[in-house]
Amino acid sequence: MQSETQPSAIAGHQPKAFAVKKARTRFFGLTLDECIRVFFGGNAFVAVIVLALITFFLFREGGPFFKMNRDSIRVYRVAGLEYVDIIRQQEQDHTALTRYLFDIRMKVVKQLRDERGGLIEADLKAARLTVEKLLSNGAAAGAPELIQAQMRVDEFQKADSALTLEINASLAAFDKFAERYGDTVLPVRGLVSDIGEVATGIKSRYTENEDYKVARAQYLAAGKKTEADAIVLKEIDFKTEVAAITAIFPTYQQMNQEFAVGLKRVVNDLPILPVPALQPRMVRFSELTDLYLAGFPETEVRLKAWDQLAPVPWYHALAGFIFGKQWLTASFWQDWYGVVPLFVGSLMVSMIALAIAVPLGVGAAVYINQIASSREQRLIKPAIEFISAIPSVVLGFFGIAVLGQSLRALSQVEALSWIPGFPYSERLNALTAGVLLALIAVPTIFTLAEDAINNVPRAFKEASFALGASKMQTIIRIIVPAALSGIISAVLLGLGRVIGETMVVLLCAGNRIAIPDFTAGLAVAVQPVHTMTGIIAQEMGEVVRGSIHYRALFVVGLVLFFIAMLINFLAQKIVRKYRISVG
Amino acid sequence: MVTAKASAISHSTSSTSMETPASTPTSRPFNLSSPAADSDQTDTLIEISDFDFYYGTKQALFDINLKLDDKRVTAFIGPSGCGKSTLLRCLNRMNDLIDGTQIKRGGVKIRGVDIYGREVDSIELRKRVGMVFQKSNPFPKSIYENIVYGLRIQGVKSKARLDEIVEKSLRGAALWDEVKDRLHESGLSLSGGQQQRLCIARTIAVEPEIILMDEPCSALDPIATAKVEELIHELKKQFTIIIVTHSMQQAARCSDKTAFFYMGKLIEYADTRTIFMNPANAQTEAYVSGRFG
Fold first, then answer.
1. What ipTM was assigned to the predicted interfaces of this complex?
2. What CATH number is attached to the domain comprising B102?
3. What is the pTM of this model?
4. Which of A53, A217, A408, A442 is the residue whose CA sits 20 to 30 A from A121?
């Protein structure tokens, strides 16, 4: 404002001020423009801060898990539970063999029934159906045709039970064999049960003592010395206590010898099956038993070499989580936090979902973008996008009430029994959850894939048509390949959406914590599974804050977090590459 | 290679030409080396009559009557929005791809066949009438795959034959020497001028009869433009070329005949020399002398 104060050179001719300055209102020393800038900048940074905070807290809550898991494994070893489990493994392998035997029996029975009983079963079914029909048609209780039908049912029922008796009689030798085979393990089983009790005793006294220690420390911290002194700590001398367990080794050795001899004797005398076609299975069974017996010396070596005080390396805690095949909590014996069953469950459900959602989503995107009339576009596009607006808990409810039921009913249709896994009886399983998740993934895949297809330059399409290509040829050879990276990233983001979905899998996946039995082939899809998201939602509410279980759930959360990051990273990378390639 | 549909297009060729050997049953329906090629006496190949064309309710072309010669280069000139590109795209029915276009009156005949007739398959038509676009648009595939695309969709599988056509087409488009060592690199890795010649090579690989060029040099630098123009001179021995251009020099340099359009109407159509030296119409004169447009 200097110019105003300076006197003008020529009197009467006031030079105009060069008006470029403007008074600005300031807030905290910032002009309005700067305030707006700070506001938007701050909003943008909130995302980064929140992400950093989430990562930090996940690590803070989950990180101590590995130390605790290591401690837990250490106790497992030092209290002798590990020792017992070595013998128990042997016993469980025997049980598995017995199951194999039982499986053979089922096959034999089925075969025999198919051979001779098939007719009776069909007749029985038909007769029962007639009775039902008559009853529903309002036939009176004493109506002659009803009585006749009921008599037929009785007749066939009698024939059926006679057949059962006959089959059982023909399997008498086999049953006897199975019984003797099963009995051989009894002494070992008794031993395991005895020393198992000793081991749990040691462990529970140890945990009790640890709890007392904590309580005592708390009293002391609160300055309550008398109460603290009232708590009597009893340190466990693992060495002497566990000696009681390892002392059984000579007994075990002898028992094992008898067990082996007994098994061999039983197996040498294989029964002849009434179905000759299945006899090779018996031979196979005897081979398996031989293999099992060959493992005995190794078990003994392991028991001898077992060292209660051997240190637990840190990576055991990590490997126990990443490769652990068991997620076993609140057990009387030992808790295991292995993520594999949950991871496999999540992966399986997601793969089922993608197998359904990718063809649907991509196909719909191609159709809407390239083929559909504008009227169809106006109808279908909002419909697909609306699906993503359905709350997933509602979808889950639909899954339980409708989809699970109808899929099971569908699986029991005889004409469809050729589909692997059909028929099945578990209403809630990976398939049910996968189908619903597909519904959730379709809008994501559709929208992004449609975008990708839409971004293919029109010039490609025109060039293709100008060379005499038909619409389908243009779509398949030019448009889809040109949009492929966009479509792949759409699928990846769909996967991210599905793998993070919680409510649907919690409600519909069946929640059985076990690695699905992949020997079943494609039928694995109808087994119930549990997922990483599901387990967090289910168990987080009931765990003690700060316990190993609580922390394990956070580590599962971390795994999910990293999977999601990886998927998003890949998708972005692919999309970026795609942009360059089109130029 | 005589397909059923191609012969359907050509079945009435004899009515328009006395000299074409279409009457001999063994020859191709659209013979590439018509004896008329080098004589002053040329045949009418394309006949556009009373043609009215609409985009939705907006009329883009008004009553066009035009006869285009075989084995000649015809240039369409005129200011932007005059309908020259629209007419060009009508010749291979590319406008079918745009919603709401319609022909209210008249038609286009190629060798006497109405290309908007009910039995005409637009896909077969486009195999006979190729097109090169304003902006070079090679597919995001290798150079080789770009060239053989048109053949692959016709079901040609023989590797030897594809190789042969690739070389022939690239030589035809004067590109062979520049790319022969990198046929399997992306077509997008070429320079703008090379890309445009690749698009021309891709078009001649399917051996069309007519090549439509929609401002093929408007995105190219002068050297690349000169190469394409040179190429057009070569190509006219084999193909009938119709070129839309904004550059009057280009029209003067490459074309035998020129049609001037204005506001959707054909104003004047004559030998290029006549149009530029001695136009009959005042508007044409104003345009070619650069007074508007």
1. 0.81
2. 3.40.50.300
3. 0.76
4. A408
